[in-house]
Amino acid sequence: MRNLDKAQTTAGLPWPALREALRQIFREGCDAPLRHRHPLPQKDAAEGSLLLMPAWQAHRFTGVKIVHVNPSNALQPGLKAVHSVYLLSHGETGEPLCLLDGGTLTDRRTAAASVLAAEYLARPDSSRLLLLGSGKVAHALAEAYAERFPLREIRVWSRRPESAARLAATLAEAGLPARDVAQADPAGADIIAAATLSTTPLFDGAAVEPGTHVDLIGAFRPDMRESDGTLMRRARLFVDTRAGTLAEAGDVVQAIAEGAIEAGHIQGDLFDLCRGQHPGRGGAEEITLFKSVGWAGEDLAAAVLAYQGG
């Protein structure tokens, strides 16, 4: 069995090839149940979690992402709160084929899925990115969007200004047009990408300008939220998967509970877009919104790409 560390997993998932691998898995489909979550007792925290995200294509490959979330690790310097690995196996024999760095795989497939959606939903000439968040996923988003769109500006905002400044400096050193900003102001942005752990809206949905594409990634639980009901109501809403969104996506679930939208406000998902069953953006002045919570099929496609390309 092969083992791919962080650097090897990154090298095995170049943005264009990863985007196409995701497009293909959304076209073909695979078996991917909603993630399993099991509580784990912690000595110094209320509770940890064991997350299992399986997916398979019959006779081809099976895979499972194994994630441990241990909040008490924050009390120990140098120990991460989240540890993740991905096990890829032969779909017919069950033989283990490859063990990959789960965090890197997740960050890159998440960003690639957002940019894949933006190919259908954002204006092709989008050049101004507002990036909300300063973690690993935000970093991956900046790289992935810059590879696909003609970005002239990347504004980086975070509730922790020092983190925004640090990420902007890192991106600038890599040759990207990034700078940190003090406000999460949507004015002037062609694309807004949010990857935070927020439980309250990050900006006023009424301030989003016509033609903007909004990409919401962070609110992966029903109690989390990055947008308000006003934005949800104004935008044409697309999601990665309907089942996952209606079960877990706080932005959508809370907007429905408030009466801002109904479930039928969802125009389509990535299956519809990738299969040509929905054209995506219909005009230059539309506000489009893509809400993702992640799908285990994306992990499987990424793992197969890295394994076969190595």
TrEMBL record:
Superkingdom, natural source: Bacteria
GO biological process, one term: carboxylic acid metabolic process
One annotated Gene Ontology cellular component of this protein: cytoplasm
Pfam families, per database record: OCD_Mu_crystall
Similarity-based family: Belongs to the ornithine cyclodeaminase/mu-crystallin family.
Stretch forming the signal peptide: none
Gene Ontology MF, one: oxidoreductase activity
Name of this chain's protein: Ornithine cyclodeaminase family protein
Organism this protein belongs to: Teichococcus wenyumeiae
